[in-house]
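Attaching the record inline, Q. Sequence:
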Amino acid sequence: MTQGVHYRALVADRLAAEQDRRKRLDDRSSAVTTGSAALLSLIVALIALVKGNEFQVGATVGVFVVISVIAFAFASGFAMTAGMLRLYKVPTANTFKTMLGTRWTDSEPSQLLACAWMDLDTLLSTREVNNAKAWWLDLALRVQLGAFVSLSLAAVVAVVDP
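Structure, as predicted:
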């Protein structure tokens, strides 16, 4: 039987694409977290280095550095939120037991339809979770960019206005 084969393939293809999207979002959130943590560590190290010397920075530079530290910390937190594990709607163990038990003799079109509906439910819940991950990741990247701009301004002010 070929009824519904193309629809089933479409749903399966979209599900695979959404699962790939989830992996890419998780990878990006890890990268933002790592980058923010590294830059935050660099700032703290520079502060320790500067504080150890007689060198003084102006209030403006200090404000920019504090803003950067806070923003990098928030960016890292937002990225971690994006990378958090979330629940996806997947077929339950009882659903599989029913398929292999009482539903085993269903016609092929009925089996295809049932599988397509389960894949569609998983696809929709995965897309919903991925959209939330993407929102948090976008926020993290915007805050990280703001932190970088603030840190850059601190460096410019420190050089221009000693």
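The radius of gyration is 25 Å. The chain has four helices and no strands.

More tomorrow.
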